Amino acid sequence: MILSFVFLIFLETRGVLSKEIDLPQVLSTRANLKSAEQKVENPFQNLLLSMIKLYQNSFSLVQSEVCNFTPSCSHFGYDAIKYHGLIKGLLLTSDRLQRCHSGAWKYINKYYTLKIDSLRGPKLYDPAERY
Amino acid sequence: MAIFTLILIFISPLTLADSLFKEGDYFNAITEYKRALFLGSIDSIYGLSMIGLSYEFRQKPDFALKYWGEVNYLKNDKLSSLHVAYNLLRLERYRECMLTLGSPVDTLAKKMKALALGLQGEENKAERELKFLNVEPPQIPSKKFLIASSLILPGSGLIILGEYKRGLMTAAFTGASAYLVAYFLKKKRYTEALLSFNVFFLRFYMGNIQNTLKMRRNRIKKFYLKLEREIEAQLAHKTLEELGFK
Amino acid sequence: MQFLLVVVFSIFTNTADMLGFARALEKEGDYYRAVLEYKRVFYNLENSMERDSIVYRIVKLYEKLNDLEDAEKYLEKVRNKNTQRYAFEKGLLYFLWGRYSLARNYWMFSDTLVAWTYLKEGKIYRAKNVIGPLVYPTKSPLLAALFSTFIPGAGKIYAGRASDGLYSMLVNGVLGYLVYNSYKHGRKISFYLYSTAFLFMYTGNVYGSYLAAKQFNDYNLRLAISEKELKLGLWRYLP
């Protein structure tokens, strides 16, 4: 089972399995991030990014609409690890996962703004570039 | 020469606007119609109608609604009501659209009503309207059937709708999470069983139903989008004929 | 034929009509078309003062459209640059851009405006003498992080985010219990898996509490600044 998981990640790094899932709202926040064309050199960072992509192409397609935020937590994690670096990215992702619950709607207009996503409906706007 | 120039003074704003409209340069056509309205060298109803129509062609139903609303207020005829209803439809204000249409008599208004009902989710009523118009309703399995099949066999609803990859993945993940819950229960690890049930099984199982209904909705929207394009073309043609646009 | 019509039309429409139409478009809220019409008026005018007033109108409209680059380009067309009006508009442009130090160079004639730029930069001590003190509640980010180190989620509750804190507490509590349980029963794989997850969530919780306190301070500072702006009537300078 572990071997098949590793094989899947290998395929993911080769771009065999995945298609870029760039939802319109993610593209617009990603355009604001500095060094958007920056190539990631760290292999561990690449591994984590591939794992996130694998998750987006498998689990994410199957599960219900669970994330309260836009960009979704997996896209946030991807952006955070890619543009803020490995350690800060992981910390931000972990914090985001612990903030993603229905109680977050209480902080609208205080810490988050409302954004109507054309595909997913009204969500709380919380991009990685804010950090 | 003087008479020719005098004629040009009075007809040129309108002629320029109409020329730009004919060419498809709706942005500049709107500017020239607005200028002609401001200078008072154009009939207000004609000008406002052409501005509204130009905004519709520029895919800006909010602005089009504003201008057609003014025309409807001034003239209060069937054509302007149809445009108001059409733009309300484009803005997804289906209830207001149906209130504007009332009890439609002509084919175009009936098609619009069927579209509004279909997009709002009242499929049975929409299908009835479409049958009166001799239009084949969308051939999609009913909601109840899909929900039932998804509840019994997760992923089957998606496979019926033709989403084979997603359906199979749903079945696999739901099955795997159910196995995980059963494994933990067998080993009497109740906390982990509860966690797996909440975090994995419930998520995939509910996701299966949600995704099935979402896919079904997308199919219906595709069908009605085709109908919307037909309505757009017919309405534009009818409007230009009635306004005497050459 | 069209070109002839356009030429004829532009000859026989006077500047007053063009200006009236531009104003009508501006009043309607059709700013982009209003800009085009004002530009048409601008190229038809000879008098410098009138041209300058049109330029300022165009700049204001570009600011409303949030097109600050074009606004800056057009502001350079002002002929008489030795006026306070020009200095104010140039300063406002840089202010809207967020370049507060550049805005200050042009706003030296007004202490209140200079203080406003310091306020926006967060340099409250510099603005205090002119606009008075800024009082707002704060929380220590380090203290929040420290609280969360001992009790996961406590730092977020301290920073005013009770629901976030409780959720963190639940997640870290459950994971912590699973780590302990797997260790107690000697399940190695489960132990390593749950420990990794717990470490990931715990460190995120500490960092998140630190960020939550910082965001609390930022939010209250922004609120205090807006209240000050409202009190001093500074909002009237904005487009």
Quick take:
Chain B is mainly alpha-helical.
Question: Using only CA atoms, what is the Rg of chain B?
Answer: 27 Å
Q: What is the CATH third-level topology name of the largest domain in chain B?
A: Serine Threonine Protein Phosphatase 5, Tetratricopeptide repeat
Order of helix and strand elements from N to C terminus of chain B = HHHHHHHHHHHH
- What can be said about the biggest beta sheet of chain C? none
Distance between the termini of chain C: 41 Å
Q: What's the CATH class of the largest domain in chain B, please?
A: Mainly Alpha
Q: Percent range for helical residues of chain B? A: over 70%
CATH superfamily of the largest domain in chain B: Tetratricopeptide repeat domain
Determine the structural class of chain B based on helices, strands and strand pairing.
mainly alpha
What's the overall geometry of chain C? elongated
How many separate domains make up the residues of chain C?
Answer: 3
Strand proportion of chain C? under 5%
State the end-to-end distance of chain B.
27 Å
Question: What does this molecule look like?
Answer:
The complex is a heterotrimer of chains A (131), B (246) and C (239). By secondary structure, chain A is mostly helical. Chain A has helices at 2-13, 24-30, 43-57, 59-62, 73-84, 86-99; strands spanning 69-70, 113-117, 121-125. A three-stranded mixed beta sheet of chain A has the order 1-3-2, covered by helices on one side. In chain A, helix 1 packs across helix 3 (43-57), helix 3 (43-57) runs antiparallel to helix 5 and helix 5 runs antiparallel to helix 6 (86-99). Chain B is mostly helical and 246 residues long. Chain B has helices at residues 2-23, 26-39, 44-57, 61-75, 78-90, 94-101, 107-120, 123-132, 143-152, 156-160, 164-186, 190-243. In chain B, helix 5 runs antiparallel to helix 12 and helix 9 (143-152) packs antiparallel against helix 12 (190-243). Chain C is mainly α. Chain C folds into three domains: 1-80, Serine Threonine Protein Phosphatase 5, Tetratricopeptide repeat; 94-133, no CATH class; 141-227. Chain C has 13 helices and no strands. Classes of the chains: A mainly alpha (131), B mainly alpha (246), C mainly alpha (239). Chains in contact: A-B, A-C, B-C. At the B-C interface, helix 1, helix 2 and helix 12 of B face helix 1, helix 2 and helix 12 of C.
